[in-house]
Amino acid sequence: FFIPRLFALYFVSHVPISLLIDLQPLLPAAGLYPRSLLEWYAVTFRDPMMMQPPEWFKAFMYCEAFLQMPFFPIAAYAFIKGGCKWIRTPAIIYSTHVATSLVAILAHILFHDFSKSEHLGPRTQQERLILLSVYIPYLLIPLLILFTMLYSPQYNQVEKRKRK
User: Fold this and answer.
1) How far lies 137's CA from each of 41, 94, 132, 157, in Å?
2) Other CB atoms within 10 A of residue 62 CB
3) Could you list the residue range(s) of the whole structural domain that residue 14 is in?
């Protein structure tokens, strides 16, 4: 009962987060979103990747825009409704993709030299850990989704077909 609700909340909340923060760097001059929210986030959490994303990070943003965003309402529906076994394969694909992306992002946060960044990045280990804490739920929840889809009998049962 708790896990599907957590997944539903994750996917429902991901829509405004993606639109208001994550995808803003793709259309900086469009003026579609309140840029001040992105600037507040980038300064508060010292995340220069959001103000001037490296090309590899932009690739992840495009994946979020064109692959993940259409999936969010579908997944939210499946987990709110409950008992939707058809969500298993798409959820495995989604969670594997996101977890893999996050490994690269987290490694960048931990090991990159941000002193040359045009925008303020984390300078101390504590600042890196704070920025890491913003991203880490987007690794942990997809991993929980993956393990739930792989091992939970609720989603992992193979239907037995009748022989004629």
Assistant:
1) 16, 15, 9, 28
2) 11
3) 2-156
